[in-house]
From TrEMBL:
Entry annotated with the keyword rRNA-binding: no
Lineage: Bacteria, Bacillati, Bacillota, Bacilli, Bacillales
Protein name, per record: Predicted O-methyltransferase YrrM
Highest taxon listed in the record's lineage: Bacteria
GO molecular function, one term: S-adenosylmethionine-dependent methyltransferase activity
Key words of the record: Methyltransferase, S-adenosyl-L-methionine, Transferase
Amino acid sequence: MNIAQYVKSLNVVEEHYPDVYSYAVDNSVPIIDSDALAALKHLIRIKGAKTYMEIGTAIGYSGLHLLSVYDDSHLITMEKDRGAYETAVENFSRYDVASRVDAHLGDAKTMDLNIEEESVDLLFIDASKGNNQLFFDKFSPFVKEDGLIVVDNILLRGLVTEDDIVGRNKRKLKEKVDAFNQHMSQSDYPTSFLPIGDGLLVISKSQV
């Protein structure tokens, strides 16, 4: 067991939604790693965040976990795949949180939301990784001045550190994600790049 595996084992907690998790595994639906999820929920508790915006609903796994931290929390979430969206809506209903969710079917890149700026405590970006910069630029204005922006999969399972990438699409994806990471590291926003899960980027909305 290496250090990363040791720390991951310490972060393992009881799964609240085993059926949703099993569905994701059985159907190869990408979901947030358990240790990254634990860190995300811890950040929510520390911040006292109760209003969330999520880019990339998938089947609702991360959304359910976000809503599990506080009983009076609320989630705005977007998903462009109809099948995943419909499964997520079913999951939200089955776990009796549908009244706390505004689920939108459509492409977040072109979606216009009728909500006020600086109205959410947390923005969670977990959609097409090559569009991280676009999602950040478009949706960060909706985050409160003292809120958080969290981006998942910033390491691309190690792809961001590889130099000899044969596939053109993989190479372009690596370049886009790395460019976003580098941009945020040099920005005026306080940032933390956490090597847990597939990498979490935590950004404080307040500029230094």
